[in-house]
Every structure is written in C-alpha cells, then in structure tokens.
Amino acid sequence: MAGPESVRRGYPEGASITRWRAPDGWMLRRFDWPAPPGSARGSILFQGGRGDFIEKYLESFAHWHARGWSITAVDWRGQGGSGRTTPAPNVGHIADFAEFIADLRALWSDWAADAAGPRVAVGHSMGGHLILRALAERAIAPDAVVLVAPMLGLRAPVSPRLGEGIAGLMTRLGDPARAAWQGNERPHTRRSRQSLLTQDDDRYADELWWQARDPALVTGPPSWRWLAQAFASTRTLSASAKLAQVATPVLMLVAEADRLVDPHTAIAVARRLPDARVVRFGAESAHEILREVDPVRLRALAEIDAFLDARAGKRA
C-alpha cells in the first residue's frame, strides 16, 4: 500500500514552485525544498522521465528531505508544467535532445552555485539518460549520480536500428511534431498503461489526481521527432567512448521486467562505466521503481540511501 495520501497529494511546507528561465528565455517549472537549517546533508537535483511532472515524486522527495537533503526538480522543456514546443497540448515534442542538455547544463550551473554539497543528480527514465549523457559530455559535475530505470535503450516492436529508421522517415513524411501514436505509453501493446508503469494502484491514481487538478500537467504521447531523437541519442551514448572517462560514482536501478526501456542495454552501459553499481529488480517491479509497491520502493530507497552515505559523504 502507498504511504500517506497527504504526502503524495499535497505540497510540503517550506517548498516552493517557481519558474526558471533557460538561456533562450524558455520558462521551466521548478520545485525547491530546502533542508531544515542545521540539518543539511547535501543537495539533490532530480529529473523525471518523458511525460513526468514534479508532483509524481513528492513521496520520494519527502524521504530524502527527512534525511537532510535539499531537493530541486524541474519539469523538462515541452512537458509537464513547462509548456509545449508544439501547438498540440497533448504531444511531447522536442526538435533535438541537445536542447534538453543545454537546459540541464545551464540549470546545473545556476543551481550548483548556491546548492550545499555534496551535489547529487538523480534521474528517472529519460531523465536518467539525459543526466548520463550530460555527465559524459561534461555538462554537469555531480559528486554522485543515481539512475532509476534509465532510458539507455528503448523497447520497440522492431529492432532499435529499424525503429530509428522508421521514426526518421515519419518525420520527413509529415509534420515531425505530430503524435507518434495515440493513448498508451507504448504502441502495439495490449497491456494497460498502469501495468507498464507501476503495480501500485494508489500511486498510479496519484498521477491522474494531479492531472485532473491541473490539466496542463498532461503531456500525452511523444512526437515522431522525439522518438527519432530518443533512438539516436540512446544509440550514440551507448557507443560513446566518453563513458569510460566518467569518474563519477553511479548507482543504477534496473527493472528487468521493464516494458518501456531496455534493461539489457542499461546493464551493458553500466559495465562500461568505471565506477558503477547495478541493483536489479525482477517481476516485482514495472518501470516506475520509485512509485512501485512498498517492498520495491523501500528497497530502492534503501539502496540509494546506502550509496549516497558511502559515496557522497557529508562535507565539513
């Protein structure tokens, strides 16, 4: 069963929702929750996955905050509460994943200038991919990184190479910002959206509750251009020689039964990182490990806590 609804469906005391201006003027929705004075453990910058929004992770933020971490999170450009890059309000679109990296680079620079160390980057799914890519490109400099079900390879009904080719062709045959499919998180599946994300009914309902409260948080399916960029960016990163130069300690949580991202590619990428620990979950977990049933979620949080205690020690 999920934890207290008051934690999952309300903003915590002391937290703020503001807007952060990217270098090109785009306004991204931002969440900040400073640690209580005198108990600061360090600072976490959290980035969610495709279609995510800040409120989905309030329960995890509360856990880390109780341990003394200051929390910052931002809705990615083009999704959640950070507006859309296409006139269609229900399509998640980006022209180039490099735009995400540029936003993350500038955000990290601004945030790290004031954030108490150690500074940790935590990313779920697409957020995990972009954090690792930014790390490899030296766009960010965290003391430790946690990747939760990272999108380092996509699940597709065809091979990644063919999927990338089809997505690229579709961007040329029509509006590249049009929806790649309708409805579900993944095309050509009879599985329900919830079964792809989490086995916890209450936590899945939380997402729908927040979206009903604020329909602007609904992102919807990705565009053909987003899909083409996702295939290209994951392919490029997984083959990058820069992975071997990443000295930052990395914890990777992988759901082996994940039906949205490819866990095998994630594990292969982890083997190429100089300092990476992989924690695997079996059939007990779908994609959203931090929003799963308590045995999964609590194990994940315990692994993260132990990793940060060991690898991101509190500074004097």
Element order: H for helix, E for strand: HEEEHEHEHEHHHHEHEH
The outline comes out as globular
In the CATH hierarchy, the architecture is: 3-Layer(aba) Sandwich
Helix content: 25-40%
Structural class of the helices, strands and pairings? alpha/beta
Distance between the termini: 39 Å
Largest sheet, spatial ordering of strands: 1-2-4-3-5-6-7-8
| CATH homologous superfamily title | Alpha/Beta hydrolase fold, catalytic domain
What's the CATH C level?
Alpha Beta
**pLDDT below 50 for ≥5 consecutive residues: which ranges?**
none
Count of strand segments: 8
Count of individual helical segments: 10
Indicate the proportion of strand residues.
15-25%
Protein name: Alpha/beta fold hydrolase
GO molecular function: hydrolase activity
InterPro entries: AB_hydrolase_fold, Hydrolase_4, MAG_DAG_Lipase
Domain Serine aminopeptidase S33: 39-294
Describe, in short, the structure shown.
Keywords: Hydrolase. Residues 39-294 form the Serine aminopeptidase S33 domain. The protein is α/β, with parallel strands linked by helices and 316 residues long.
General description of the model:
By secondary structure, the chain is of the alpha/beta class. The protein has ten helices and eight strands. It has a single domain (5-311), classed as Rossmann fold. 37% of the residues lie in helices and 15% in strands. The chain has an eight-stranded mixed β-sheet with strand order 1-2-4-3-5-6-7-8, sandwiched between helices. The chain is globular.
